[in-house]
Write a structure and sequence with these properties.
CATH architecture: 3-Layer(aba) Sandwich
Helix content: 25-40%
Radius of gyration: 16 Å
CATH class: Alpha Beta
Strand order of the largest sheet: 3-2-1-4-5-7-6
Order of helices and strands: HHHEHEHEHEHEHHEE
CATH superfamily: Vaccinia Virus protein VP39
CATH topology: Rossmann fold
Amino acid sequence: MPSMASLDSTGGEEYTERLKRLEQPLWKRVLDVQAPYRWNLRRLFGDREVLEVGCGIGRCLAHLAPHGVGVDHNEHSIAECRRRGLTAFTVDEFAESGYAEPGRFTGMLAAHLVEHMPRAEAVEILSGYLDHLAPDARLVLICPQELGYRSDSTHVEFTDFDALTDVARRLGFTKIEPLSFPFPRFAGKFFKYNEFVLVADRQP
């Protein structure tokens, strides 16, 4: 099995297996460590139908069920999503699916996507899904803070609130609220799972 340092792409089976291994420790399951993140996503999106771009193996997608649809470039991760009973597609499959309708989704999520590439590339990818969003759709962008960013060798560009705000504005979202979750901003240097969360809506 390759070491984490050898993983330089999110597109292969090795990355999918790494994501699965990260969920396996017994203490994570016993303590339900995803509970606060599940609560936060459901609070932010409510009953909106959400398209998650870069859904991975479905950690956040499961929190959005039954209102979430995922898309990812990694076919192995999509297979794992489906094994978990989630609705998810590869990029090409989504384009041919019945979900790829204009204005269908009232929410779009990109969680731990933007930091894996140069910012301009992230904007380009997310722009490709704007036609599938309703006029009142909400965008939520999530990226790791300092310690979490350093934990994954496939991360390319540290993406803080200023960078996420720039991404959201380039996508046409101007009503923006930044949140540090689950702890205040300073915790990101010491707690791996502290996140930048940017909630963005379009101005009426």
